[in-house]
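Before the break, one more example. Copy the sequence into your notebook; we will annotate it together after we see the structure.
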Amino acid sequence: MPSGIPKEKQRQRAPSKRSLETRARIMDAAEQVFAAHGFDGASLRDIASEAGVQVALVNHHGGTKEELFWRVVARRADELSAARLKALAARKARGPLTLRSLLECFFGPYLEKAEVGGTHWFAYARLVAIVSADPRWRALTAHCFDPTANRFVSEICALYPQAPRQTISAGFVYSVSAMLALLTSRWRIGALGQGSSEISEHLDELVIYCAAGIDAAARR
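Here is what the structure looks like once it is written out:
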């Protein structure tokens, strides 16, 4: 497994517009294929077919299957992290934090992107679920997600100084799982509840649900 996000191959000149468009199409296709079939079930041939290119081009722009998976997961991580930290900074500027406000800062940016960013952000949620569930991607999650996650865990720990960090961390992981369930299985909410399955309408209940669990565990 790579020790970090694979570095791009050095080029003699800047890539052309066509090359950049091809790369983006391959990354989008890989995101969809990995999300649908997982890492093991996906193949570079499937990705090439989805992107409408030759397999050689997938290798050229993405590297090996593992390198391509790393790149696909990493490419949205920085954008999402920046949005969460920006929301956190803005909320801290308005006054003392609460558990609910912290969770809103963490969940809100992703739900907003999923609402307006199309199917790619929903596929990305499935990728995050895949890497979160499989220890072989420990280095990938440590690189892409842990810095921001640890920042939020630390902020929650400051609200509950008597609680062990492990307790807060567990509650945070359970909460992330709940967010991913909303993003990947929201149709079940509508089916069982016979109501709306729009993501924006579930942010408050997601925050209430997760905050109650973390608070109960922290005070135990």
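The chain has a mean pLDDT of 91. The first helix runs from residue 17 to 41. Try to locate both features in your own notes.
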